[in-house]
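Late entry, guanosine-5'-monophosphate complex.
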Amino acid sequence: MCIFCKIVDGEIPSNKVLENDDFIAFHDINPSAPVHVLVIPKKHIDCFQEFSAEDMAKATPFIQEVTSKLGLDKTGYRLVTNNGSDGGQEVLHLHFHILGGGKLKWNHYHDDPKKAI
Ligand code: 5GP
Ligand code: ZN
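Prediction complete; structure with ligand written out below:
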């Protein structure tokens, strides 16, 4: 079972922000911003490339509820999903990063192919 499926099952604890029948939002263990929350579907899906339009339609209002709960709807935030190797995806269970709580840098490409961004 993957690490995020274990979080869904409660086998690994998480600092939850919000949950419904289909998704969980919890704080990232190694935050890259003052606020860094992950949103995952409860059913295992490898990556965004495998995510259906129907499921995305359910994810949208959930993510918006999370950002409102965190107050980021007022101040702004970044919504990111890393897809596959070049995207820097480390956990192969689809997750959306919500980053906020301060001004964010915009820097993507790393010219050393061995290093993640
Ligand atoms: P990726 O690089 O796959 O887009 O992002 C994976 C994210 O999951 C990273 O930001 C990492 O800090 C976070 N992460 C990995 N393992 C755990 C965990 O057990 N708990 C929590 N809360 N976050 C995790
Ligand atoms: Zn999983």
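The CA atoms of residues 18 and 65 lie 8 Å apart. Will revisit in the morning.
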